[in-house]
Amino acid sequence: MFEITKDFRFEAAHTLNRTIETEPSRRIHGHSYRATITLRGTPGPSGMIIDFGILNTHIATLRDMLDHRFLDEVPNLGPATLENLAAFIWRTLHPACPGLARVAVFRDSEGESCTYEG
Fold first, then answer.
1. DSSP string covering 34-77, please?
2. β-strands 69-70, 2-14 pairing
3. Tens digits of per-residue pLDDT, 76-104?
């Protein structure tokens, strides 16, 4: 069994209703995100689990949904937590990438991340 991984980055703004640090969280603010997509499988006749060119096309479509967006307005995302972002990325990519094994979303500047394994 093999795993391949692809990273991509996006910048986005959001608000968040929290019980701590309420005022800054409720104001529109932004973050730099990094996401890691991992696919697991056995290479097919091409010698690949998936051609990175095909994976890049799917990620570009997804990235366009998130990059430089107000995440509060992204349909089917919910509150823009790391957990919801990871699950959203999974739901968006899984139909086109059946070998999807893991999605991780990072806010490197804060040392925070979340991993989702469908």
1. EEEEEEEE---TTSSSS-HHHHHHHHHHHHHHHTTEEGGGSTTT
2. parallel
3. 999 999 999 999 999 999 999 989 999 99
In a 13 Å sphere around the CA of 74, the CA atoms on its Cβ side amount to 24
User: Is 55 within 8 Å of 98 (Cβ atoms)?
Assistant: no
Share the mean pLDDT of the chain. Answer: 94
Tokens of 110: 């804060």
Query: Which one-letter amino acid corresponds to residue 110?
Result: E
The arrangement of strands across the sheet holding 112-116 comes to 69-70, 2-14, 29-41, 100-107, 112-116
